[in-house]
Design a protein that fits this description.
Layout: E1 12-16, H1 23-32, E2 36-41, H2 47-55, E3 60-64, H3 70-84, E4 89-92, H4 107-135, E5 138-145, H5 157-177, E6 182-189, H6 201-207, H7 219-230, E7 241-244
Parallel strand pairs: 1-2, 1-4, 2-3, 4-5, 5-6, 6-7
Length: 251
């Protein structure tokens, strides 16, 4: 298993939004391999919860960052590289999605979601890429969603627009950064355990009906996907979007 590898020992890893979704599992996995990890705590997160998550993981720490503020993002990555001694891997973890009828969503709501789910990751990728380019190597992985690739998810128009934009942006960055040893990839997820935690047995039965493998995804599986893309084994993979949907959506 990749988690038993020493490849990530001493690696400098930044998880933006690392206390959200599958972030805690990913944090523990990197730390178990001996990586040095900074969790970027975004305004979408509970700072106390993020601190508690990092506190229980050896080699992990938290630094707050307003990902919608370019100056703040630069300050954050300066702090990360100083603390970690460099920057090898950036992972943008997805924030929770909220739902509403597309025809009823005001412009302000669109701007808010696009700022958090598109401009935020863009600024983080840009800042990380500058530093990785100077170093001549790096791995960037962002969590998107199947809603950014398909139109079947209702009531998530702003989120889908942001996630689709993130996929497109990552492809362009992959092409521009490839000559410098930096890969840029995306993971598009469907339903995962953290999204349905606490759901009733009846609800779960209904949820998995449309998933060919017969279950929702596990956070550890998301972590494995990141590990592959961030490892030497993924060096020839860039500009790609990896589907993690249990066969619910297929290209």
């Amino acid at each position: 298993m990749l988690f038993e590898s020493e490849e990530f020992a001493g690696a400098a890893v930044v998880l933006v939004g690392g206390a959200l979704g599958s972030g805690p599992e990913l944090l523990r996995a990197f730390a178990a391999c001996g990586a040095k990890v900074v969790v970027g705590v975004t305004p979408a997160e509970d700072a106390a919860h993020a601190a508690a998550v990092a506190r229980d993981v050896p080699g992990a720490s938290c630094i707050p960052v307003d990902i919608d503020d370019e100056t703040e993002v630069e300050r954050f990555f300066d702090a990360c590289t100083e603390q970690l001694g460099g920057l090898d891997i950036l992972v943008n973890v997805a924030a929770p999605v909220s739902t509403a009828d597309a025809l009823e969503i005001p412009a302000a709501r669109y701007r808010d979601v696009l700022a958090r789910e598109l401009m935020g990751p863009i600024l983080c990728i840009q800042a990380a890429a500058r530093r990785m380019k100077e170093h001549g190597a790096g791995r960037i992985v962002s969590f998107s969603s199947m809603s950014g690739k398909t139109g079947v998810h209702r009531h998530v128009a702003p989120y889908a627009a942001a996630k689709g934009g993130l996929i497109a942006y990552s492809r362009v960055m992959a092409a521009e950064l490839a000559p410098y040893g930096v890969t840029v990839n995306v993971i598009a997820t469907s339903l995962f355990d953290v999204q349905v935690a606490g759901a009733s047995a009846e609800r779960m039965q209904e949820v998995v009906k449309g998933i060919p493998v017969g279950r929702v995804g596990r956070s550890i599986e998301a972590a494995h996907a990141v590990f592959y893309l961030a490892s030497r084994h993924g060096a020839y993979v860039t500009g790609e979007t990896l589907n993690l949907s249990g066969g619910r959506f297929m290209d």
